[in-house]
Structure formats: C-alpha cells, structure tokens
Design goal:
Number of strands: 0
Distance between the termini: 18 Å
Structural class: mainly alpha
Number of domains: 1
Helix content: over 70%
Strand content: under 5%
Shape: globular
Amino acid sequence: MKETIWGLLIPFAGTIAGAACVFCMKRALSTLAQRAMTGFAAGVMVAASVWSLLIPSMELSGHLAKWAFAPAAAGFLAGVAFLLLLDHVTPHLHLDTDRAEGPESHLNRTTKMVLAVTLHNIPEGMAVGVVYAGMLTGDAGITTGGALALSLGIAIQNFPEGAIISMPLRFNGMRKGRAFVCGALSGAVEPVFGAMALLAAELVAPAMPYLLSFAAGAMLYVVVEELIPEMSAGKHSDVGVVAFAVGFALMMALDVALG
C-alpha cells in the first residue's frame, strides 16, 4: 500500500519541483523553451497512453478474441468525451493568449490559467490511479515497476509544466511565493483524481479495461487539443517535434525497462 501512496504523490512532486523554478531562475522562459517543454510533455503522454493504458486494456479483454479492441475503444471515446465536457464547462485560459475558453465568468486571469493546467492534469492523475489499481488487483498484468514507470514519466513531464505555469506569473509581476503556490496547486488534482480512480477500479474490477482506456482517451484529448497546437504555434520550428520524440522514447523506455 505504501508503494501505491508514493505512486500517487510522485507526479505531484514533479509539478512542485517545476513550480519552484521561480526561486532560482532570473529570466522568463523563452518561447523556444516553452515549445520544447510542451512537446516533451506531449510525447510522454502519448507513449504512456499506448504502453501503460491501451495495450493493458486490450490484453485484459483477450478473451473476446477479435473483439478485444471493443472495451478499449469504448473507454477511449468516453475519456475523450469526458475531457471535451470539462473543456466546455470550465472557464480557463491557455498561456500566450487573451481569449478565454469555456463559459463566461468573472474569474481573474491567473485563476483561469491555473484552471487550464488543472484540466490538463486531471487525466494524468486518473491514469496513475487506474494503473496502480491494476497492479493491486493483479489481473491487468501490470507490475510494480510498470506502475512506477508511469508515475515517474508523468512526474518528469510535470516538472516543465510546473515551470511553464509559475514562471510567466512571476515575470508578470506576481510575488515568487504566490507564483510558486499557483504553479504547485495546478498539479494538486493529480493525487486527488488518482485516488478516486484507484477506488473506482478496485470497486468495479470488471471495468478495468474501460477505465484504463478512459484515462488514455482523456490524456490524448489534452495532447491533440492543447499541447500539439501550443508546441506548433507562431514561427515555424522543429524543436517541439524533436522534444516530442524524446519524451515519447523516454516514456517507452521507462515502461519497458521497469515493467
């Protein structure tokens, strides 16, 4: 049980460490650096969705033979629909834009920016929780090392995310301490949703294939709707694509090596 608790907290620790960059960095992140970080995060999330979530989901449904894809496909589409719904009902503001998304609200710019990253982190927390549930049940073929690989991969890509949210706030005039807290809080939903997913999966073990692919669908929605456009915005550059490849390869290596 101790491994599970640490597994849920490791990704949050990555966000906290990234947000702490406001205390040691004297310059704002360049556009190129933000693109690289965003591309890296996208690569990690895509690899995690495939190796840690979709493949185990289909392996669990192997008894369905040619229809083994069906639970994975259904859960995947449900995860996409879930994030699509959250995206439309939550007021939020992405970096480098003044146009808020979601319903109109009187929330300030900082709150909307934190909510944007929070939406991004929800599926990551769910993914970690479901994978650890699969490890505990022993039915999903997920090892302790495989679950740890996902936690570490999410934590690594959360580090630049924490910096991406806290650094602009700091250099827009916010105090270091408050900028750090805002950056760190954006990742607080991960252990919360991770614990919720863990409990749900343990209570409804037969739904494990659907829950695994649900988390994958939610994460890939974030990648396609948010991260890829951000890493490609503005003047053409290949840095986002290269960072994507590095993130993908790293997460793939972690999953295979530790799993």
